[in-house]
Amino acid sequence: MPSGRGRTLKTALIGFLFAGPGALVWLGVGVALGTSNALRHTLALGGAGYGVGYGAATILGIRLKAPGSRWQIPAQWLRGRAKWQVWSIWGAILGPGAATRNAYLSFWLLLPLAVVTEKYEVAAFAGAAHGLGRALGIVRNVTHRCPVQNPATWGALRTWIVVDAAILLFAAGLLSAWILPR
Fold this sequence. Notes:
The chain is mainly α. The protein is 66% helix and 0% strand.
């Protein structure tokens, strides 16, 4: 990774390669599923329950298995390609987030939040924010040679897990607030 302005520009480009697909996919989800009032209520109720359940369990130190896929991008899709092509493939698949393993439990609240708000820009923003977050995490891992294997970074990882639990509880509150007056 270059240093200085070159690194900043490259990181911004990588962020765009992840955030763009994230925004487009979640905007599409919001548009496709946002027309059904019954579905919006079901997703809001399910999302609120999910947020409370997983958020409280994490805060209490109870480890629950995260829902989702275990699929990862096959190495042969990346082998022999230029770096910009590798980043583009990663961005297109990891940016939206649903097709591959996602360690953060709060990710799964993107679906109810994208649909319930009835505002498509919220769905696009949530997808872009998720994609950008994944891009920054991957860039950091690439530049710091796999910090997850470094015991010095485990405290920071635990901190992010607690932050993720707080996000779950906050989102559950938002979804509950949406349900109650209806």
